[in-house]
Amino acid sequence: MTGTAGGWTLRPVTLEDVEEIAFAELELFPDESWNVFQLAAEIEHPDRRYVLAAEGARAEGALLGYAGIMLAGDVADLHTIGTRREGAGIGRALLAWCEDQARAGGAERMLLEVREDNPRARAFYDAAGYREIDRRRGYYRIRGRRIDALVMERDLS
Q1: Which of 5, 23, 28, 146 has minimal Cβ neighbours within 10 Å of its Cβ?
Q2: What's the whole-number mean pLDDT along residues 67-73?
Q3: Is it the case that residue 4 has pLDDT exceeding 60?
Q4: Dihedral sign for Cα atoms in the order 85, 89, 94, 95
Q5: For position 85, what pLDDT does the model report?
């Protein structure tokens, strides 16, 4: 999939991408980033699907975003989604790719957790058709503070 105006392309993540994604994790999620070893284990796991967005027609340029899901029967969990360029449709394209992969893997619904104190992400998921179904109290620990996670769901059928 290619971005319409932004000159970017989606492609599956490989182990060669792990270091660059780890740097992006530190940049985008400094309080809860995954390290190279965690990312490599995720990417190699048979029930995971990861994608990245990069500049260029063959996705050979700079990393612009990435996302990943876990498949578990009729449910998929969105593990991560992050973009370095907001407003270019990259986040929407990454999420759509994840939803397509979830459906192809037999999932009928997608779950995710989002920090209660992240209104921008919450609005993104609301606009994509996700609805809040639960709250996990104190799920995130950020600099000694506990922050609730909102569990959101979307029907994929």
Answers
A1: 5
A2: 98
A3: no
A4: positive
A5: 86
Task: Enter the tokens of residue 70.
Answer: 């876990």
- Measured CA distances, 61 to 9, 71, 105, 126, 137 (Å): 9, 29, 29, 31, 40
Give residue 86's identity as a one-letter amino acid code: E
Q: Which residue has the tokens 């799920």?
A: 139
Q: Which amino acid is at 34?
A: W
Indicate the burial class of 89 (C-beta count within 10 angstroms; 0-12, 13-18, 19 or more).
middle
Q: Rg of the chain's alpha carbons, rounded to an integer? A: 15
Structural domains in the chain, CATH included, are: 8-112 (3.40.630.30)
Say if strands 63-72 and 109-115 run parallel, antiparallel, or are unpaired.
unpaired
Decide: helix, strand or coil at residue 142: strand
E runs forming strands in the chain: 8-12, 48-55, 63-72, 75-83, 109-115, 131-142, 145-155
57's tokens = 């027609």
